[in-house]
Write a structure and sequence with these properties.
four-stranded mixed beta sheet; 2 domains
Length: about 250
């Protein structure tokens, strides 16, 4: 690929949004016979690198921010190994509420894990972990989280995974992308009761300010959760306008 990230940033400098047609013209400056499939592949590479973010279908924005990279740990590896041995063909993802710490001002002293899987497997996965003497929970309320989840080592909540949720596979382990984490934190107020109000606003602002966020991915996943209009308004009202200027182009 002849064009580099800094080239595309320079060519489209000052533009809040870029259409697929404009990107196609740019790519074909060097390679006039470039196929539509090759163009889509180039756009995908720029998106993975964090240079382009998708606003909506066929519309992008330049981003100089780095992509968020999920981090696992030994406990996650242990849980995933147990789960995949029992359900090798079942979709899942795993993450930790500790991921939110780097996005927050007030740092919680405790955290928990979340294993999300297909709805009809949740109860079985819960019992599978309990049989391994893990501190596992299904749909705990705020009080249960306060008393038995937070403050307990390696507590894990097993919950349904929304279909077509945006996930990322790293070293054969599936993690949620940052866009999914933001939506889940916004909508699941019982589980994430400790990051509501101003702290939730801090999380969204830090995420948009420091990481490459694909806005269309947030809205698409939020739509599957039935809250796309709510989160659209929340982002517009809460996030620093300099970080979402491209949404108003």
């Amino acid at each position: 690929m002849k064009q580099k990230a800094n080239d595309i940033q320079e060519v489209f400098k000052g533009k809040l949004s870029i259409t697929s047609k404009e990107l196609t013209s740019y790519f074909r400056m060097d390679s006039p016979l470039l196929s539509e499939n090759s163009i889509r592949q180039r756009i995908s590479r720029y998106k993975r690198a964090g240079t382009l973010v998708s606003i909506k279908n066929g519309v992008y924005a330049i981003s100089g921010k780095t992509p968020y990279v999920p981090e696992g740990d030994s406990f996650m590896e242990k849980v995933v190994k147990i789960f995949r041995n029992a359900y090798p063909e079942i979709n899942y993802c795993i993450w930790s509420s500790a991921w939110l710490n780097q996005l927050m001002i007030q740092q919680p002293s405790h955290y928990f894990y979340l294993l999300e899987t297909e709805d009809d497997i949740v109860e079985s996965a819960f019992h599978l972990l309990k049989d391994k003497e893990m501190n596992a929970w299904v749909n705990p309320g705020k009080n249960a989280i306060q008393l038995y989840v937070l403050g307990r080592k390696n507590a894990i909540i097993v919950k349904p995974l929304i279909s077509r949720a945006p996930l990322k596979s790293i070293h054969n382990t599936r993690y949620p992308v940052l866009e999914k984490v933001l939506v889940d934190t916004f909508v699941e107020k019982q589980i994430f009761y400790f990051v509501q109000g101003q702290e939730l606003a801090n999380i969204f602002n830090f995420a948009f300010s420091n990481f490459s966020i694909t806005y269309s991915k947030i809205i698409s996943y939020a739509r599957r959760r039935g809250i796309d209009k709510k989160i659209e308004k929340y982002i517009a009202d809460t996030v620093n306008q300099n970080d979402i200027a491209y949404l108003n182009d």
